[in-house]
Amino acid sequence: MAQGHAGELEAERNDVRDDGRRPPRAVVGSHRIEEEMFGRAFDKNIVKRIWAFVKPYRAKVYVAVAAVLIFTATQLVIPLIIRYAIDHGMALGGIDLLPLFIACGAFLLAILINYAASYTQETVVGKVAENVLFDIRRAMFGHLQRVSLSFMDKTEVGRLMSRLQGDVNSMQEFLETCVLSVGDIALLFGIVVVMLWLDFRLGLLTLSVLPVLFIVRLFWLPRARNAFMAAHETNSVANGALAEAIHGVRAVQSMDRQQVNFVLYDDKAHANLKTHLTAARYAQVMVPIVDTLTGIAMAVVIVVGGSMVVNASLDIGVMVAFLFYIQRFFDPIRSLTLQYSVMQRAMASGKRLTDVLDVKVDVQDKPDAKVLSPDMDGSVEFKDVTFGYNPKHPVLKNVSFRVNPGETVALVGPTGSGKSSAMALVHRFYDVQQGQVLVGGHDVRDLTQESLGRQIAMVLQEPFLFTGTVFENIRYHMTDATREQVIEAAKAVGAHDFIMTLAGGYDAMLEERGGNLSLGQRQLISFARALVADAKILVLDEATANIDSYTEMLIQKALVKLLEGRTGLVIAHRLATIRGADRIIVLQNGQLIETGNHDQLMARGGLYSKLYNLNYASFDDIPEEELQASAQSGSTT
């Protein structure tokens, strides 16, 4: 589905840091790249892509277009009915009732058809637009759930939200007005044809004001476009500054930066005000111009047409019909002017939406991928694994080790040594460049991601809880888990007591990301979630890093229950939390430099021993020279 040209988002995916490490996720408020507001007036490739979503509803679209054309036809017919009534029902010698009755009947019929056509097109277009937008949102959400984490690591959440909301809304505006554009174009040409048919000379004279309008638009359009783009860009900057200030309000208040930030935001807000006022002037200037041209055209018809009526070379009904047509003639021009801007925004929005839909999914199941059996032994093995977020700068270099079924293995190493990357490879969040990662004796690339995920439970350093009840969050991985299983898991990890103190207990509602719980409480819930998942392999990535000593003591007790009968992979800077591991693997600079249990590594006197003797200090607290010396003296076994 990917297009031949690389989209803006695809370019961001490839923007990897020079050192090969995964770049930090961008935050809302960053303005590295301004969103383009206006695209080309018409891009057939974008229209073709959007039509793929409209196609299932094309029958309704045809009905809507037919209704619009019928509605336009009634608008063209009504002045002709009035002309007939004047010329045939109101003769100079008196009033002829029969033509008046015919005209009244025709007028009533035209109004009824007009109403029915208008109601049909409004209803059908509205429903089609909503259904198409629903399908686009669902397609984007589904695709974003499957894209590789390498893309999500490098993409601003705010920009994705903008595409899911703002750009989709722009498409809604386009879908609702594009059918009306057909009617406006038909009405415009219909009025020209009818006026020339009624009286060719008077019609040409009336249309003589059009060149003035086209000349005005020729000068107006580029300036208006620049003004609208400037207004959008300053609005984006101001909103970004506002979002950044809100997210960082604690830091702002702690450093007493309120006044400084206000001045900075005030400058952006004033720039936004200035550009919006300029854009408003350009948006409003066309209305009086069109109204003036309408008045000029009507004056021409009254003066010239009136003299023709006096000279008996023009029926009075024709002149009246001309006046009606002139009143309506500039309406579609005004409407098409507005719809031109709508179309430009829609083309730009469509481009950004398709860019998201075209993001390549790097990690995909093979056509013949196997389902990992729940009866697999739970072993994990790395065979000469080389991996880097940028292949030119590997994070892991020829790493090999095996974790036997039911064994608990801890990975330690300085920041950037590849611990978390190794854990991500076990779950196949990324694919290796060289070597193999085996789970249950199978290469993870030969397994379905769904079955692999069912057998691996992960507890991360910062647990992510979803808006919902405590019960729903604990059984998030296993939606068919019973309440009894959830409560049993919570008791096993020491979370039951604090859950029962919440209003509603297990039915207590959690705020966004569990904001109404402490970090330790959120972590305990994530442990309960992992236990309910009942996976064969448990990955703990710095799971106790942000927890107080008392909660850590509870978790250490819970880990005995949690790891019972399971293969455990543990990452921890607090070395005391992993001294009971069956085996400890020490990584540095992406290479395995030591392996063994706690006693063996302490007796060896290598890097692990020095770390442990430094009161469980983190690697970042040790001088680089000592780390290097320890790395060189450490044996690779």
In short:
With 637 residues, the protein is an alpha/beta fold. It has 21 helices and 14 strands.
Task: Write the SSE topology.
Elements: H1 8-13, H2 44-54, H3 58-89, E1 90-91, E2 94-95, H4 97-146, H5 149-154, H6 157-198, H7 200-207, H8 210-247, H9 249-254, H10 258-310, H11 316-357, E3 380-387, E4 396-403, E5 408-412, H12 419-426, E6 434-439, E7 442-443, H13 449-454, E8 456-459, E9 468-469, H14 470-474, H15 483-492, H16 496-501, E10 509-510, H17 519-533, E11 537-541, H18 549-562, E12 567-571, E13 583-588, E14 591-596, H19 598-604, H20 607-613, H21 624-633
Parallel strand pairs: 5-12, 5-13, 8-11, 11-12
Antiparallel strand pairs: 1-2, 3-4, 3-6, 6-7, 9-10, 13-14
Helix pairs in contact: 2-11, 3-4, 3-6, 3-11, 4-6, 6-7, 6-11, 7-10, 8-10, 10-11, 15-17, 17-18, 19-20
Query: Cα-atom Rg, whole angstroms?
Result: 35 Å
Number of helices: 21
SS elements, strand count? 14
Helical content class = 55-70%
CATH topology assignment of one domain = ABC transporter transmembrane region fold
Name the CATH class of one domain: Mainly Alpha
Multimer state = single chain
Residue stretches low in confidence (pLDDT < 50, at least 5 long) are 1-39, 615-624, 630-637
CATH superfamily of one domain: ABC transporter type 1, transmembrane domain
- How far apart are the termini? 47 Å
Overall average pLDDT: 77
Class per helix and strand makeup: alpha/beta
